[in-house]
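Hi C.,

You asked whether I'd gotten around to modeling the 160-residue construct. I have! Everything is below, sequence then structure, no commentary in between.
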Amino acid sequence: MNCFNHHELSAIAQCQDCSKGLCNECATKYSIPICSICNSSRGKSEKDRIIKELFWTYGLGLGLTFLVSRGSMGQMTFGNNSIETSLMFFMMFYMCSGLVAGWYTLNRITPQVFLFLPLIGWVIYFVIKMMISIWVGLIMLPVRTCRNVRRIKQINAIPI
């Protein structure tokens, strides 16, 4: 079998995703033997997943903040002074955005033991997880955001 990119060279490895033949140069181009097309595809799907998470984090945070902060007359209900109102709006936005970051973090550590629960168990589990997500999210929101932005920069820097 010859290399998919360099037809005159014999293959020493196969792409882990599509099984195309890779020569020494192509096999060592990335940290694992993978062709450029599959590496690009992996990068695009990871980038899409990260952008989706960031959209949910800040979109839901902004949406919940506006829902909670609006009174019946369409005005902010926090305070009379604009600094106090701005601070309360920011705190509410941070907590609502942290809900998503906390949820994603808890999904990584939640055991699969809860799969057998009856419906009422799922409701209780959901409510408790949401409450814990808010508190975990207060810490994990900046951590996950920085990690995701850094990873997008790394993906964009990978040569094709």
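If it helps when you're writing up: Strands lie at 13-14, 21-22.

Thanks,
B.
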